Amino acid sequence: MLLFQAPLSFATRLSYRIRGFSRRGLVSTLARLSLMALTASMSSGCLIEDPPPYTQPGKTPPRLEQQGATPPIDQVMVYKRGDPIEFKIPVTSEDAGDPLQGVLLLDYSGGLEADLVAFGQVPASTLADVNPRFLTLRWTVRPGLTPGCHRFTLRVSHLSNFNNEMASHVVFDTKDVAEAYWWANLDPEDSSTLVNCPMASTGGT
After folding, report:
1. Averaged over 177-197, what is the pLDDT?
2. CA 164 to CA 124: how far, in whole Å?
3. Among candidates 87, 88, 90, 86, which has minimal Cα distance to 63?
4. CB 177 within 8 A of CB 156
5. Domain extents for the chain?
6. Confidence check: pLDDT of 79 > 80
7. CATH topology of domain 63-200
8. Does residue 42 sit in helix, strand or coil?
9. 77 pairs with which residues across the strands?
10. CB 161 within 8 A of CB 174
11. Pairing mode, strands 115-122 and 77-79
12. What span, in angstroms and rounded, lies between the C-alpha atoms of 82 and 187?
């Protein structure tokens, strides 16, 4: 009997230690898994996402600040033959690298026929630019004009919008155009012709 009791007692103690080790190992394993899960969740919360790709702003139609124009558009100008005239007006737009072009037309009534007397460009810019841009055009009153009231039409659009194959003042997209008008009494014979000149702000003919 003694021969069988010793191994049995030893086996019982060994089994107890194995069972005890297993419980402690399981608890330790679960603790490590929980810590790893917590660390992973904390790490994912600290990730910094890549910024969205840069998108270049699109174009906007030009806007003419008519209150800042010279000569003032709400006054009838009076010039004689040979007098130089400087037209200057502030302009803003989002250009996406496409410069603006202005064409100055004399007595323009629409269509393809036009008397283009001056044109000019301003560099491309953005609406965020705090520095004002001015479109400046110059023309000298030429001989041969009928004395009296004449209308100047300034058309401004992006350079790529002008259809130069058709005519220098014609555009593809009429929504990408801004206009301003001046009225002038050119080479007047007397002051009575001023009566027939409407205010430039009306844009009338």
Report:
1. 81
2. 19
3. 90
4. yes
5. 1-51, 63-200
6. yes
7. Immunoglobulin-like (2.60.40)
8. helix
9. 184
10. no
11. unpaired
12. 9
